[in-house]
């Protein structure tokens, strides 16, 4: 009790989360995003083509016209938004918490203090592995909306980050 | 004398009856539309086959429940410190629960169990979502004995940690158990029934009527005749009157159903204090009991509407930390019909002081515009688009549009007006709702993570949104003063990161 103090905190001198410089995702990760998109769009185009080859009478000519117009527009928008989304994503590890920024129209920033982290996982996707990239998943007790997934980190670096987080968590215990 | 739990033992033999009724209930619940049709078509069915069929069903359920009873055993393995339950008729399961993992042991009594005079014992562990061990039929003394043995481990740890309990403390405890500090009277429950849950009751009624309607339609010829008759009966002049009367009738039914439902659910609501936790028990037919541990409470919600304020009652909802999201709905504990002083004493027990409202934040008027656009603009556009291009017939219902706009507009306006975020040193309170105005109270140290969100065209206006994630759900506030929000986030992060505060 003797060492107990309760001084007023000067709120102006607190570390400011919004002025943190964020690290962008690994440049190679854009290829992972684009390959995934190419696969998705490929299927999107392939299905109507197959239908039109074997059962063209299934849909009327007007519907085919609409499909033909919508798919390219949709694909271009998807690619554009994915590229912007990739550029907007960023992460930062501070001394006491981890920050992740994402979002295209809205800028979202999520902060998780290390002493609220439940566990950390490393995830390697099929295509990511080819580029030796990994995804770090940070879980809290707050449900799926409060978890952070940072994709596109160099695998070695990701492993180091995971070790760092594990040390930070264990120190709390 | 202490009961011996070291040998595998069965439930009380009368438990066969409980098993029988539970299995019967399961089948009945699954097959009730068929049963209803059976009853209506009773004359057409061959009576002999019908009764033979019924007999086989009852006998087979009886045999199954007897086998279930025979194969269900439980015992305490004191060597490995485990509680072991074996059950199953064809597929046998053996559940071993480590004693130190047991969080809670509840003794409940459903209506059937009350009739037969046995109790149910549930074992809750930290690890999983569902209740792992449940003994369906056990006598009260045995249940109490088993409960104390199951929780012995925890008690031991506690005794080691603290000093030995003195005589006075035990007396105090006994007094606390015997004298519930809050009792909710039938009158308060009546008030709650009249003033709450309109939406829920109407939804329930709709589901009920639609199932009946569907089943009626399955009758075939007879109902067609019925429909023709009704069709000729209703003159167009009477349509309006009929609608008005049926709406009034529906409202009456809703009120009665609501009152009955609330009384059945919450009859004899008692709250007792026990070692700093709150012990709740309630229910007319099914008596439920739960424990609230203050350190596990994440979000406390105080809800009140205009009528309830006039009558001096309010509703409390308490969300505890959950292990899984599916469980979230179930772990909300409701305390209906408290008075303001009772609310204060419960809040004092949970937070050690009465929450205060501090700095007030209100949303920007753009929030109102946006929600009006979403809830009125888009549906109206959809309505006009469908009517213009696809199905002009729906324009016959155009007289509903002004009513919709006025009702939804009013709801959105009041929702906007009531939306507030209060930030105090020790509490964060979010106020929301159009008719039922609720205040979500959390303590900053319960925050698990914080999300901020800002649309790029709101940067200059300096407004933005915040979501506070806790282990019991999220608290979101839209379009508040962004610089204040950011400053408060920095403060909360500082507080969370510098202290080893316990959030659970």
TrEMBL record, chain A:
The keyword Nucleotide-binding does not apply. Keywords: Membrane, Transmembrane, Transmembrane helix. The chain crosses the membrane at residues 29-51, 63-86. Residues 89-164 form the YdbS-like PH domain. InterPro entries: YdbS-like_PH. PANTHER family: UPF0699 TRANSMEMBRANE PROTEIN YDBS, UPF0699 TRANSMEMBRANE PROTEIN YDBT. This is YdbS-like PH domain-containing protein. It comes from Flavobacterium glaciei. The lineage of its organism: Bacteria, Pseudomonadati, Bacteroidota, Flavobacteriia, Flavobacteriales.
UniProtKB/TrEMBL annotation, chain B:
Residues 73-148, 418-474 form the YdbS-like PH domain. InterPro entries: UCP026631 (IPR014529), YdbS-like_PH (IPR005182). It comes from the Bacteria. The chain crosses the membrane at residues 12-28, 48-67, 201-219, 239-264, 368-390, 396-414. Keywords: Membrane, Transmembrane, Transmembrane helix. It holds the Pfam family bPH_2. This is Membrane protein. It comes from Flavobacterium glaciei.
